[in-house]
Write a structure and sequence with these properties.
The complex is a heterodimer of chains A (170) and B (186). Chain A is an all-alpha fold. Helices cover 61% and strands 1% of the residues of chain A. Chain A is built from five helices and one strand. The termini of chain A are far apart. Chain B is mostly helical and 186 residues long. Helix content of chain B is 55%, strand content 1%. Classes of the chains: A mainly alpha (170), B mainly alpha (186). At the A-B interface, helix 1, strand 1 and helix 2 of A face helix 3, strand 1 and helix 5 of B. Strand 1 of chain A pairs parallel with strand 1 of chain B.
Chain lengths: 170, 186
């Protein structure tokens, strides 16, 4: 059997966080800058905040996240029942905001992954990429071109168009 | 005239030629040249001669800027002091789970103490605003329904004529004089 390739000639790429192997005797500028930043900005600000925390009164007040009840949607409202329309519209707006935040979280994850992995992100961040693609496609198809004056009615009409297009295709 | 200018140039030329030996020439007076004295460096003990510098007035500009700074600082310093002390001594709230069976007040959904104070003192709770809007919508819906009904009823009454609207008052039967009708062919 022919012998395997010489591992030293084509070394495998290092795993996630490579150990630094400095060969030049010059000081590392990144290290110098980070230490400078730490002593001039980070340490004073942290000590200041710690002092403030000591100084402030012990009892802390709390704030909560509001929980909203689910109300009947636009499709479940009687025709002409404007109060029902209003409640459905408000619920749709809250859901729109929540979906926007979900998209932002997924984007942030992908950005962090790309920052970590560097040039090989298209291989290593595959899961995040897929998730982002799926989520952004779904968001686009549901809320895509509704515009600034988006409303529950317009979203419903868009869904109707989507269903009609699907039926046409099938 | 030409002779005068010739004299003047001649005087200037001689003056430049012989700067030291410059007696008071009559041509000086005639030709209006000023004898140039030597430039000597003099050290004053003060800032030099006091000058009255002629420039356009900056009174209005300076007054405006002074008043601007005054009014901004008048409200700015108390506000800055209040915000600083609130941030230092009271501090922001912490996020917590809603305890069982407890309905938080509407201001307890905000983080910063000043926002909480504004929500508590000036604003209505969002639930109340929601209910107010729903009440307005209900009123308007009822008004619209009433108007539709009224139009429908008008149509019916006009058509059928058996309702209280669209009644035209006719003359009382007893007032009609039947006497000319008893002899038709006069």
């Amino acid at each position: 059997m022919p012998k395997d390739h010489d591992k030293d000639v084509y070394p495998e790429p290092p795993s996630r966080t490579p150990v630094e192997d400095r060969q030049s005797s010059l000081p590392n500028p990144a290290l110098i800058l980070s230490k400078l930043f730490y002593y001039s900005v980070d340490l004073p600000v942290t000590t200041f905040r710690v002092c403030l925390a000591c100084l402030s009164s012990g009892k802390k007040s709390h704030y909560y996240h509001q929980k909203f009840r689910r109300v009947p949607e636009l499709t479940q409202c009687q025709e002409g029942d404007y109060v029902c329309y209003y409640e459905a519209e408000m619920q749709w707006r809250r859901d729109y905001k929540v979906d926007q935040e979900i998209v932002k979280v997924i984007q942030e994850r992908l950005r962090a992954c790309q920052q970590r992995e560097g040039p090989s992100y298209s291989q290593n961040c595959y899961k995040e990429l897929q998730q982002f693609e799926q989520v952004s496609k779904a968001f686009q198809s549901r809320y895509g071109d509704l515009g600034a004056y988006a409303s529950a009615r317009k979203c419903l009409m868009k869904q109707k168009e989507r269903m009609m297009a699907e039926q046409q295709q099938a | 005239m030409v002779g005068m200018s010739f004299l003047r140039t001649a005087a200037a030329f001689t003056a430049r030629l012989n700067p030291l030996k410059r007696t008071c020439q009559a041509s000086n007076l005639l030709s209006r040249t000023v004898a140039r004295t030597e430039q000597v460096v003099v050290r004053h003990g003060s800032h030099g001669k006091r000058m009255f510098i002629i420039k356009p007035t900056d009174f209005y500009d300076r007054r405006f800027l002074h008043l601007l700074k005054y009014y901004i600082i008048l409200a700015g310093i108390p506000m800055a002091a209040i915000v600083t002390f609130v941030n230092i001594f009271i501090g922001e709230s912490e996020l917590a789970e809603i305890p069982e069976g407890y309905e938080p007040e509407h201001w307890e959904y905000y983080k910063h103490p000043i926002t909480r104070w504004i929500a508590r003192t000036f604003y209505d709770s969002p639930v109340k605003d929601y209910e107010k809007m729903m009440a307005l919508i209900q009123i308007e819906a009822e008004k619209a329904e009433m108007r539709q009904l009224q139009l429908e009823v008008r149509r019916h009454m006009r058509e059928k004529g058996d309702g209280p609207w669209f009644q035209i008052q006719t003359l009382d039967k007893n007032l009609i004089d039947h006497s000319p009708k008893s002899s038709p062919d006069n």
